[in-house]
Amino acid sequence: MPPPALVRPRPVHRAADLLAAYLPGSFYFASARGSLLADGVHTTVRAGHGARARAAAEVLDAAAVGGVDEPLVVGAIGFRPEAEASLVVPALVRRAGANTAVDVPATPFGSTRWAITPRPEPEAYADGVREALELIGGGELAKVVLARCLELVAGDPVSVPSLLARLVRADPAAHAFAADVSAPGDPAPRTLVGASPELLLSRRGAVVTSNPLAGSRPRVADEAENRRRVAELLASEKDRHEHAHVAAQVAEVLGGFCADLDVPAEPVVIGTPTMWHLSTRITGRLADPTDPGSSSLALAEALHPTPAVCGVPVGRARDAIAGLEPEDRGYYSGLVGWTGLEGDGEWVVTIRSAEVCDRTVRLFAGAGVVAGSDPAAELAETSAKFRTLLRALGLEGAA
User: Fold this and answer.
1) pLDDT in tens, 121-142
2) Which of 58, 121, 131, 143 is flagged as catalytic?
3) Which UniProt keyword terms apply here (predicted)?
4) CATH class of the domain whose range is 15-107+117-398
């Protein structure tokens, strides 16, 4: 009788160890499901919009045949269909449990000298909201999400590992990520880094989950005022209507893949350190988990972009965004995450994020414009959403 096959023990890592080991060029992703750190490139996924999930499945199969143990595709995809993407099968993947507050060390942030340029200026952003309201009033749109950008230039190169660690420490429950998105012509490596509160799609076996967010209020230090804002958000007809658009579209898309779907009748409010959001957690069971078209990446691309980051109807909202926003979003409001050989994976919406290249940091934040929106209030909402990254950079008052 042949001897039993040797089982190679898997190394055990702590979440804090993976975070401490992150260096620019690696891929880092953490959520309540666990954390992973990926290094090196075994294969690059080269495919355009509509073909990425199929291409990812093909390179994963080839990597498995080539001896890669439990291969993954990791990376990020930009907002627009023609936008750039950065997807690879890494050479090495290490996994650990979820982050906790005690696990994450405090890290100083070096640079204190910054030049900050809003793009567009706040007044111009408010004018864009007014133009969007005219489109909505004319019946062309039901909703459009308008974003604005802050470009920050530091006196010294920005430490992405320090920024990532500070984001994780501030909110260990967020989906924290850092992905290399360098492109030809970049003067230095470019990293997409952030802490997103919004789960686009998680798949584990036959079970899929999406947690769209839409409708929000800034969070403040006074707890009595926070309770008032939460109650106001739950009672707001405008915010509930905006949220209903998003939840309905997510449910409609997932319904095409699932044998059963659970969609709560009412949203709840969830909080981050800087914001309160209306939230609906939608879960389903796939009709055919073996179908390559129901991998986590395929489902995430089918859902993207939700009305939470684009609008209703999607095509017209995208066109309006292209006409009203002076800055290309790049990877902002796209998706970032991972998918595995069997289709399992996790993808989040790329919000509360920045692209960092040497001394330059580009932040985006958006607000959903619907009938009844107030330009000043939407401008204030984007300022509140900037706080996640600005806090981590030591610049909270700059929004």
Assistant:
1) 999 999 999 999 999 999 999 9
2) 143
3) Isomerase
4) alpha beta
